[in-house]
Amino acid sequence: MKRVKICLAGPGNVGKHFVKLLIERNELFKKQYGIDLQLFAVAGSKGGVISSSPLDLEKVYHYSSQEPWKSYFPGYGIDDLKSWQIISDSETDLLVEATPSDLKTGEPGLTNFKAAIKAGINIVTLAKGALVTDFAGLMKNAAKQNLSIKFSGATAAALPTVDIAHYCLAGATIKKISGILNGTTNYILTKMAREGVDFNTALKEAQKMGVAEPKPDLDIEGWDTAAKIVIITNATFGSELSLKDISVAGIKEVTLERIEEASLKGKTIKLIGESGLENNRYKQTNQDIKNKVFVKPLALENHHTLARVDGTTKAIHFETDIFGDLTVVGGKSDPRAAAAAAIKDIINLARERF
Ligand SMILES: NC(=O)c1ccc[n+]([C@@H]2O[C@H](COP(=O)([O-])OP(=O)(O)OC[C@H]3O[C@@H](n4cnc5c(N)ncnc54)[C@H](OP(=O)(O)O)[C@@H]3O)[C@@H](O)[C@H]2O)c1
Fold it and tell me: How many A from CA of 203 to the centre of ligand 1?
């Protein structure tokens, strides 16, 4: 039996679903994969817990951030350490990084990643921040220490993206990747096209349905899609891009008139994250990169597979030389599915490394 000692940073929405999946499925993982996933440490925004034996998962699941860690876990709860310090001291094999994503600073993930790498801990991340600010640096440092970083949960979660490129398309030249990588914006554009409502009405409806957040800027301005396409591009083409290197436009400027005009021409407008670095085979100027890696609303021919992906559904389309074109569509867009993407990464990482 391979035992994986885990430290969870960010016991919030996704973090709790991750713990719940461990409660529900670890016995299955032991039988099916010979892998025993055990939680030994949790790092939150105001302290955490480090244990020398596996933590009681039900107790972690019911933790509320209002409660001091010291009184919730008497004897080993800690109220006065930062998350990176807990990670450093955790003596675990693997960090699950589920803290908030700050796409500008990369924090708190960036400091947590550095602490994990220094302490010899592999990383499975749901947070995008660290990867969009210093993808290349983190990967190089992890490789030097013979550590892995996996990030399905940060690149459209339940929809497989980098795993398709790495495993299923190995050996091919990927000429272009394009994706509908954000469910909120796709829901809004679908609603505008189907029901003839304007952007603001569609956004309000999305907020009422819980599809859009009260502060939806990262989604509607294209930054969430941009973060995902930057990570997918770096992971697939070996580039070293950050968010500032690519051009990004969201859907605020998409009017009903533009959608109707496209429809008359047999086209559908979708917010597309696209990357055409072609395995990074030649030196590219900054302008080349901005032309080839971008986020913008595109009018797609109605017969394009991505044009038919509606509502909150996400999809990714690959153009390759020897495999031809292929599209993957679907996967749930909720915190449990995001946590499941982290579990998938851990199982695959444990199969490869432990
Ligand atoms: N929600 C989804 O469906 C989804 C899907 C894919 C990826 N993600 C990514 O997953 C991550 C977590 O999302 P979420 O929805 O679970 O967010 P959330 O509910 O806000 O949870 C964030 C957690 O991180 C903790 N935290 C805040 N600052 C911290 C710090 N400096 N050090 C350690 N912990 C800290 C919070 O603790 P306090 O409560 O004490 O502040 C909370 O426990 C984000 O990066 C998000 O982009 C989410």
Answer: 24
